[in-house]
Amino acid sequence: MSDGTNRLNLHNTLTRSKEVFKPIDPQNVRMYVCGPTVYDFAHIGNARPVIVFDVLYRLLRHLYGADHVTYVRNITDVDDKINARALRDFPELPLNEAIRRVTEKTADQFHKDVAALGCLEPTFEPRATEFVLARADGKADMVSLIQTLIERGHAYEAQGEVLFDTASMPDYGQLSRRPLEEQQAGARIAVDVHKKNPQDFVLWKLSSPEEPGWDSPWGRGRPGWHIECSAMSAAYLGEVFDIHGGGLDLIFPHHENEIAQSRCAHGTHTMANYWLHNGFLQVEGQKMSKSLGNFFTIHQLLETDIFGGRKWPGEVLRLAMLMTHYREPIDFAVRKLEEAENTLRKWKRAADLATAPAAVPDEMIGALCDDLATYPAFQFLSQLAGEAAEGNAAASSLKAALAFLGFDVFSAKVDEALVERRIAGRLAFIREKNWAEADKIRDELLGHGIQLKDGKDPATGERVTTWEVKR
Ligand code: AMP
Ligand code: ZN
């Protein structure tokens, strides 16, 4: 374990500036990242925070030691979108059973998807439904938090809802920099009559008999969206922790409201010290999202030819995502994936020359310590790839770096079946005397480092083609 003190700099949305990262307790660095709402396949935009914070998790483990980092990423398994999906997909089942089917299936798929993208499992992955009511183990739960907020004068009941009273918190709006007065002045939307202020938000709402619900002091109901993360982060990381992450769209209202709930319930000055937000993955300049319909699921990209007419390996998607700095927008394009694939191929071929184990190169760690600057980190890897030769230090360092970043350096192998299929296709073109197409295939394979050799079968006299990996 190296001493990470004062080495890592992170851009903090709270202060809009890069700051030296100082953990509350270097023996237990604590990070919470908002996880998926499990009603449908995750799209590749949803994969961005998972991959970005996986790299940060790996970096923290490197700096503070693998046993000294706690990473919590929740699963949101209570949401009206889930109810709607359950009713649609399993109309014949009781709602609770239907919901269970939807959330289990979707969570399983999510796990498969992010594993294919090379992400480590978080330390804890709590499900919201397990933190609604007071727990036998005494960990924080949503109903108790809401009770505390009411007792402390930060929440009120109105028309079957419990609402957070934003006016009770003088510095509400710090993260998104939307002071209350501004919001009130700018509010054009008709104020819900039961709300004291338009920005007051729901902590608890009553459920109809058909809707899922839990018995609470305010009747049978279900939690609002934000309270779950306040409960689950407190349950595993305590009232104040180090890093809280998610996509840019979560700054307001989700994270702003998490902060309001947690600080007011615990009487603390802050909820987390560093707030990190990734930029959007876009399609033609627009955020990829379910509601716009401009999305590709991770599963589709891995398993079908929907994007660019072919399947994409998880690690190519991973590298493509990391080639852009996490706070910048990414335009999702075939060209970008091809570029990542070519780079990864070069790196892996060079890393294949390693003969001895090596440490993760400090130059790469240094680059990543500057707010996860992947671009200079990758430039350094390309430099190592250029210098790599059988058994030299560059090859070994590169291999260690790729393993650190979550790329599978042990399967830097050629897809032999695919090569054989391309060779058969080329021989067919040759028989048709379509030299242009035949040459195209030869050159394409050469571009992938595969050299074809044409010869004759001594017995039959027929053309046979063999191949080898050219280094
Ligand atoms: P959601 O399921 O919409 O709550 O999103 C789960 C996570 O994915 C959140 O951290 C979002 O901020 C993030 N996210 C959603 N869409 C995108 C996108 N197009 N690009 C980057 N992050 C996204
Ligand atoms: Zn959250």
Please explain how this structure is put together.
This protein has 471 residues and is of the alpha/beta class. Among the domains are: 154 residues, HUPs (Rossmann fold); 79 residues, Four Helix Bundle (Hemerythrin (Met), subunit A), CATH 1.20.120; 53 residues, no CATH class. The longest helix has 22 residues. It is globular. The mean pLDDT is 93. The structure holds adenosine monophosphate and zinc ion. The site of adenosine monophosphate has 17 residues, from helix 1 and strand 9.
Give me the number of helical elements.
Answer: 15
CATH superfamily of the domain at 29-130 and 279-330: HUPs
Adjacency order of strands in the biggest sheet: 4-3-9-10
Structural class: alpha/beta
Radius of gyration equals: 26 Å
Q: Tell me what the CATH architecture of the domain at 29-130 and 279-330 is.
A: 3-Layer(aba) Sandwich
Which band does the percent of strand residues land in?
Answer: 5-15%
Characterize the main sheet.
Answer: 4 strands, parallel
Give the topology:
Layout: E1 9-12, E2 17-20, E3 29-33, H1 44-64, E4 69-73, H2 80-89, H3 95-116, H4 142-151, E5 155-158, E6 161-164, H5 180-186, E7 202-206, E8 221-223, H6 227-237, E9 241-247, H7 251-266, E10 272-278, E11 281-283, E12 286-287, H8 298-303, H9 314-322, E13 330-331, H10 334-351, H11 362-368, H12 374-387, H13 393-404, H14 416-431, H15 435-447, E14 450-456, E15 463-469
The chain binds adenosine monophosphate and zinc ion.
